[in-house]
Amino acid sequence: MADITRRPFVHHLRSDPTSFVLQLRDGAVMRSGAGVSFWFRPSTAALAEVPMDDREQALMFQARTSDFQVVSVQATVTYRVSEPVVAATRIDFGINPRSGEWNARPLERLGGLLTELAQQPALEYLAGITMAEALAHGIGPVRQQVADQLANDQRLIERGLSVTDVRVVAIRAEADLERALQTPTREAVQQEADRATFERRAVAVENERAIAENELTNQIELARREEELVAQRGQNERKRASEQAEADRIATVAKAQRQGLIADADAARTRLLGEADATAESAKFAAYGDVDQDKLIALALRELAANLPPITHLSITPELLAPLLTRLGDGQGTTATASE
């Protein structure tokens, strides 16, 4: 919208670069152009502002297919005013010289015109195909039909308009019918999902079975190896005990033989010593055989005295003297008798 600055007798207008402004006075064009700025007298000036930027017109309409089903078409048409001078002469783009607002609603008129022109080729095309075809493959052909129609439409050319783009967003059936049409696909997808789930479960069960069998095989192998280990340990213990017993037997036999040899040696030595002692004693007795008995007694007493312990004091008691005196008395009596 143009920006108008008001003064007591004249006003100033400043337009946007995308707006084409015309100033007329007495039916003649005084100024025109995009993005212009000028002073004017509001009492004598007639102003028109035509937007030249791209604008979008949303379309929403219903159509009937060849199988008598109703579908909804949602589309968008992008257009622009390519000939603003022509458009200003065919559509009311006049603005209030004091406020700068449009006197009418030109964009709504353009939108209504584009909607009517776009609906016609879409309705004709959808009437020739079934609803299933429209829902499955109708967006592209409908867009092409509408674009071709609007590009060559004489009514738009006469009004200085050009369509730059056409987009068909969706073609949809009624909600209940659309759900009914989606049911087979949903069922097929669900069946495929169930099949994949069953296959995954079967694979999981098979994997679990394989794992269980593998664990059982490992346990059996471990038990067998443990049995072999126990048997080997028992065999080793028996062999160790047998070898220990044999070693003990050999040690015992060797010890007995050693002790026997020692005993035989001790016996032989004792025998030899005894024989030597006997020979010595025999020699002594043989030597003493020619010696007088009194001398032998004297020798014996001397030997006895040499082996007696040392005497430090001597205690003579009546008990010791009595037998000695008795023997002495007996000896004197015997001697006197013998002298008589």
Commentary on this structure:
- It is a single chain.
- The protein is of the alpha+beta class and 340 residues long.
- The chain has eight helices and ten strands.
- It has helices at residues 84-90, 106-126, 131-137, 139-151, 154-158, 175-288, 293-307, 318-339; strands at 3-6, 11-14, 19-25, 28-34, 37-40, 46-51, 55-64, 70-81, 94-95, 161-173.
- A hairpin with a 5-residue loop joins strand 7 and strand 8 (70-81).
- Helix 2 (106-126) packs across helix 4 (139-151).
- The longest helix has 114 residues, at 175-288.
Query: Structural class, judged by helices and strands?
Result: alpha+beta
What does the average pLDDT come to? 84
Q: Separation of termini?
A: 203 Å
Q: Give the SSE string.
A: EEEEEEEEHEHHHHEHHH
Global Rg = 75 Å
Helix content: 55-70%
Report the sheet with the most strands, covering strand number, pairing sense and barrel closure: 4 strands, antiparallel
Low-confidence stretches: 333-340
Number of helices: 8
Shape: rod-shaped
How many beta-strand segments? 10
Strand composition percent: 15-25%
Q: Give the neighbour order of strands across the main sheet.
A: 4-3-6-9
